[in-house]
Amino acid sequence: MKNTIKVERAxxxxxxxxxxxxxxxxxxxxxxxxxxxxxxxxxLALRMAKVFDTTVEALFQLEDGDA
Amino acid sequence: xxxxxxxxxxxxxxxxxxxxxxxxxxxxxxxxxxxxxxxSIIIGVVPIITFVIFIYKLIKSFAVMDEVKQRVxxxxxxxxxxxxxxxxxxxxxxxxxxxxxxxxxxxxYLVCYCWLFYFVGWFISKKKYGA
Lengths: 67, 131
What we know:
Largest sheet of chain B: none
Largest sheet of chain A: 2 strands, antiparallel
Number of helices of chain B: 5
Strand order of the largest sheet of chain A: 1-2
CATH class of chain A: Mainly Alpha
CATH superfamily of chain A: lambda repressor-like DNA-binding domains
Structural class of chain A: mainly alpha
Structural class of chain B: mainly alpha
CATH architecture of chain A: Orthogonal Bundle
Oligomer: heterodimer
Number of domains of chain B: 2
Number of strands of chain A: 2
CATH topology of chain A: 434 Repressor (Amino-terminal Domain)
Distance between the termini of chain A: 10 Å
Radius of gyration of chain A: 11 Å
Shape of chain A: globular
Radius of gyration of chain B: 18 Å
Number of strands of chain B: 0
Helix content of chain A: 55-70%
Shape of chain B: flat
């Protein structure tokens, strides 16, 4: 699964720490999500989409091998 | 929220220290001093109580962790549990073969190995997620 968190974060000029604080996770935890090491829960994905004012589908996309 | 997370984590650390501070003297007393059986039982029960409180606080601190840290803890416990089961199985099978060394693999040591395996699991999982 790939994600566009880094891109969305750059649009808002937020650091990982800023976003982590906004969605209630640790910075290290957010880094694990951003680098694709950890797939977040629906709740966290929705929270992230909300702070970026976008949709979960826009933030996370399935890759060929995921289907 | 952030404050309650830190409080829960600190409480579990504090109760771990309290448990250590009761467990080690209790073991020393029971090993090196002679008490009547009721007194020995009371001395033995004290670290158990502090351990139960510590585990309760630890579980409470898990509940307030973010989901990545919860996953790290879950994997640490699974790895720690699996390695402990493997060790106990090996020791059991070796004892059936007549090979056993109570000096290094007594109950007290098994507790230490169990914690060691938990920390091994924690290290592996932490490295995996970078959290």
